[in-house]
Amino acid sequence: MVAQLDPIRMWREEYARRWLKIDFEPLSDAPFHASFEPILVGMRIVRAAFSPGVTFRDEEMVKDGDDAFGLMIAQSGDLEITHQGRDLRLGHGDAALLHVRATGSVGSRQNFGYISVLIPEPEFATRGARAGDALMHHLPRRSEVLQLLRGYLRSLERSRFSGSAEGRDTIRRHIIDLAALALTPHGAVGESGLSAVVAARLAAALDQIAASFQDPELSVATVARSQGISPRYLQRLMETSGTSFTARVTELRLQRAFALLGEPGPGRISDIALEAGFSDISHFNRLFRARFGDTPGGVRAQAAARNGE
User: Are residues 8 and 126 located together in one domain of the fold?
Assistant: First the structure.
C-alpha cells in the first residue's frame, strides 16, 4: 500500500493541488489512475475519471478566491457528493451544483467519473439564475434541459472544436445558458436561453444524423421522434445550419461512398452504394457524378491506379 501511495502523493502535490486546485484520497488499494480531458479550450469544462476514492477541496484550498459554481454531471453510478452540510448520491447522468469556495468532496468506492462545468458566479447572476438556491439539489438525468446540455457537450467532444475565438465565445454562452436553465427549469427563458436550446437541439440532431446516415430508412420523422420534436421544427433547425435534412444526409452518404471506392477490394459499386445508405442505385449514380464530376467507376479506377492495382 505504501508503494502504491507514492504515485498518488506525487500526483496530488505536483499536479492536483497546484494546478487543478483539488485533492484526492484513495478508498481502496486498487491501482491508482486519474485523467482530465478538457472539453472546450478557454472554458473550465473537463471530463474526469478516477480509481476508487474522493476528490475534494479542503479549508486551505478554498482560500484561493475562486468564486465559481461547479455543475457536476455524473459519468458513473453511485457518485457520492458531500457539500454545504448535505450528502447526495447521483446516478449516471444526474447532476448537482456545488460552490468552489466551500469545502466538499465527490467520489465513489468504485471507479468513477464526472464532467465538471465551472462557471463564475457573476455569469449565473446575469442570467437571472438563483444559483445559491440550487446548491446541492439533485438534478435528475431525465431533465430535458440537462439532457440537451449533456448532448451539447458530447457533440463538442466529438467535433474537437477548434474554431475562432468568436465561435468559442458563442459556445461558452450556450453552455452557461443551458446550465442556468437546467437549474431554474420553471424560470423565464430569454432570447439568449432560446438560442442555447436551439443550438443544443441542432447539435443533437446533427449527431444522430452522423451516426445513422447509412440507414436507408433514416427520415426527418424518425430523427424528430427520437429528439422529441416535430418534423417541421427539425426542418427549421436544419435550415439554421445552412442546409436541409435531405442535403445533409445525401452529402454524408456520398462522402462515405467516395471513401469506400478509394479502398482496395473487388466489392461491387452497387454494394458500396447500399452500404453508404442509398437504396436506389440509379439515383446514387446521378448524385455521385453531380457531386464529384465523375462516375463511381471512374473514381474507383483512379484510386486503383494510384494504389498500383
Answer: yes
- Which residue range is the domain that position 234 belongs to? 142-242
pLDDT given for residue 1 in this prediction: 40
In the block, cell 465527490 appears at: 106
The answer to whether residues 88 and 164 belong to one domain is no
Task: Give the SS3 label for residue 90.
Answer: strand
pLDDT digits (tens, 9 = 90+) for 81-125: 999 999 999 999 999 999 999 999 999 999 999 999 998 888 877
| Amino acid type, 250 | T
Q: Are 236 and 252 members of one domain?
A: no
Q: How many structural domains comprise the chain?
A: 3
Give the confidence band of 205 by pLDDT, cuts at 50, 70, 90.
Answer: very high
- Let me know the angle formed at the C-alpha of 165 by 160 and 169, rounded to the nearest 5 degrees: 85
Identify the residue with better confidence: 234 or 309.
234
Length of the chain, please?
Answer: 309
**Interatomic CA distance for residues 106 and 80, integer angstroms:** 6
* Cut 0.85: pTM above it: no
DSSP state of 88: E
| Closest by Cα among 58, 6, 71, 70 to 32 | 6
In 3D space, the residue among 228, 289, 296, 284 whose CA is nearest the CA of residue 253 turns out to be 284
217 and 146 in one domain? yes
pLDDT score for 162: 65
